[in-house]
Amino acid sequence: MIRGVCVGLVACVLLSPVSLVVPAKPAEDFDPLVNIIVHVDVLEIRALSTIEAESAPEFYVTASINSQEFHSPVWQNMTEVVPGPWTCALDVPDDQATVNVTLSLWDARPDGDRLCDISGRPGPEGSVLNLLYDIRTGRWSGDDSIGDPSGYGRANGWDDGNGSERDCELYFRIWQTDFDGDGIPYWAEVHLLDTDPTQNDSLLDPDGDGIPTAWEYHWGYDPSSWDDHQTLDPDGDGLSNSMEYQMAAWGADPFRRDVFVEVDTMQTGPAGENSSIPHGSLSLVRNPYAVKNIVLRFDVGQMGGGGETLPFDDYLSPVELKQLYIDYFLHGNASTWRRDVFRWGALVYHHKAIGMAFVGERAFLNAWHDKGTNCFELSHYQLRERYANQSSEGANFTCACAVMHELGHTFGIDRLFPFGCDSILSYYPWTIAHYVCRNYRSCLNYQYVYQILDYSDGSHGFGDHDDWGSLDFRFFLPREKNLTL
Description:
Helix content is 19%, strand content 20%. Strands 2, 3, 6, 7, 8 and 9 form a 6-stranded antiparallel β-sheet that branches. Strands 12, 13, 14, 15, 16 and 17 form a 6-stranded mixed β-sheet that branches. The protein is α+β, with helices and mostly antiparallel strands.
């Protein structure tokens, strides 16, 4: 009897379709502390090639988060936009691990808006940035990722090798709501780092290597494992990871080359003597570096050190120039951390040369191919003589060429290194040097210094030199940390 009951029960169980349904596992809430909202911020837009022949572009951005589209305002007649930032956001499902994000840049035109290229993928269909954001880790992948050539959070249309597609660079970031505000998502804190998702852990340093948890996690380092960030320099730009962390607020990327230049300007003289260079010159000189995925930034006051006003002097001697360097760049401290990060540019009223690169701490400022060259001066008086009759675009170009020439010396491309660099003989068409060096198409060659806003790539035949391939990013660093003034 008992056996029959059991058989009957078994039969009932086997025949019942309800009993075959396995209870569903509850969906995982990837952050039970907050409602997850994904934000996309556009930080900066720059044109790297001609967008419109007749005027500056009318940029706007289209972003989508999980197919929900957002449109920025139109920034009128600007080749460079720092929107401060422009942001869009979407409440996403808390149990969805990944979010699709796309970014596209447009030039608004009366005859139809035109897509600009911000992607490294070839062809018009490759102009849009396609990204996959992970709610669990707070990182994204796809057309931009940590360690790619253009940098994390930076897109470069030149990466596809085609410079004729209205190429631009665009800086952005993606982030999500986070209960403790430390920038590390709940899931990563619980499952990867074993930190407290209710406490701000961003400044903790559990491994004692001098770099806090949030920065190490963001760039893929293990916050619980000691790293020698004082010497690590994975991108070879002369800035250690410690320095990259110091400059994080200004977009420093430890896996992409960054160059920082402090710029100070002499005060106006009693007769109105001006020492500035035309507006737009410094922005223009950033472009050829950006094409090569070298991010050049000038500190004219926004980074806490540049933009200082030098006392007026109607004619600077080398000794006076060195003293300005000590007083206004080093501020009397030979061990200042800025010496390891920044080059220094002094815009002065009058000096014997239009421009001059030098080693700030040396007795003789005009050092010949001397490691540690980290400074340059530009003379407004001398430059004005050269661009006096030019349009505003021409004046900007002339000054940008002068800045790029002098910066080249801080990378070790210096007088006769290679032959043709800063050779006065190559300037004169009646000399043999002129013909030997005419294929060296670089602003570092006196033949082309105000004609070409670029370094050479060595592809122009006999006598040419690959400047870009020879840049020594550590050349500006001092021989010794403890300098004697």
